[in-house]
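Pasting as-is:
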Amino acid sequence: MNPTLRGVRALTILTAALAGSASAQNGAFSERAQQDREIVYFLLAPETHSFELYHDVTIKDVGRSTYINVVRTGSKVSNPSARCLDTGEALKVETLRGDEITKAQIDIGEPVKPESEAAVVRFPPVTKGTTTRIRITETYTDPARYRTEGDLVIWDRSFGRPQNAILLPAGYELVASAFPVKISLSEDDRIRLDFLNPRNDEVRALVHLRKRR
């Protein structure tokens, strides 16, 4: 067989196998190449255990009019806001907790518990042939995942998306990172860490910081 044809046949078989695997998992398999959500964290003073963040996401599903951001257990969210990046329009955001989520018939992808919390962004339904690009901005407080131990500051959080970035507090430097990271300097002289995750799972971004000497 022609080597080129053999390669095409092998690729066809592999593609079919992957498609069958995804179907067998009822959509549980998520193709990394189609994920375009970008998240940037801005770490506030370590003693506050707080950080601001924004994440940009493109909504492609026709008829969809809500975006749900589930708050991780142990974190507290405040000051949520959202904006349509296509038009600049401010979008309505509400924070729902426990029974409020159930009453609003919001699917958060997991069983609703009394401590469950979700930020719900609402926007005009996506029409055929279009997309909606939105940015959600929030402030989180999480003493377990963003804390101090002696003269070290610990950031211990997992990332499940392809593109994630952290801006360190002003005057702090990186000591160690458990996952490969690209280091750069922001315009306001803060160290920026970029984590690229091409895998189809989460990575644990365990980072140690300290004040610059």
